[in-house]
Amino acid sequence: MKIKSTTRLLDKTDISRMILRLTHEIVEKNTNPDDIVLIGILSRGEPLAHRIKKNIRELAQKNVELGTVNISFHRDDFMERLVVPQVKGTDITFNLDKKTVILVDDVLYTGRTIRAAIDEILSFGRPSKIQLAVLVDRGHREMPVKADYVGKNIPTNEGEHVNVYLQEVDGKDLVELRQYSKEKNNAE
């Protein structure tokens, strides 16, 4: 597929504002911050979870536990994707039993990543609740998944893709919408 156009949707200021709003919503909905743990989905959910953790520490004066989950081998379509899974593994070194797990990811699309993350989390314990915080919800669910906290809804059409770039991973904070044409790129 060939890139038809790229539109910048959100910049660093927009993203910071959205993360702060997500944090406020998380703190308001969960009256006991001692019960909250954050789990970032690798790779961009991890830095988002770190930013939310920092904001919770400033807002609620609580230092919540933070872990990461690698869902590469839990996805039901990982053989079809033909992508070499990320080597970095799941890192949950604390007890999840009776905790409120806030699962954090950059983009919610089909719901398959979230389903896989929940499978992985449940292999580490039995949380009282699992809530989902995403920076962007682009729609097009294939699984019955709904985010509890959404930074921005960006409805997409066929041939459109939302790219999230974060400073910690990509060297910049940016959300863009790419439109692809169905014609083949000569470089492919």
Note the topology:
Layout: E1 2-10, H1 12-29, E2 36-41, H2 45-60, E3 65-69, H3 78-81, E4 100-108, H4 112-122, E5 129-137, E6 149-153, E7 160-165, H5 167-170, E8 174-181
Parallel strand pairs: 2-3, 2-4, 4-5, 5-6
Antiparallel strand pairs: 1-8, 7-8
Helix pairs in contact: 1-2
Structure description:
- The protein has a five-stranded parallel beta sheet with strand order 3-2-4-5-6. Strands 1-8-7 form a three-stranded antiparallel beta sheet.
- The mean pLDDT is 91.
- By secondary structure, it is α/β, with parallel strands linked by helices.
- The protein has helices at residues 12-29, 45-60, 78-81, 112-122, 167-170; strands spanning 2-10, 36-41, 65-69, 100-108, 129-137, 149-153, 160-165, 174-181.
- 32% of the residues are buried.
- 28% of the residues lie in helices and 30% in strands.
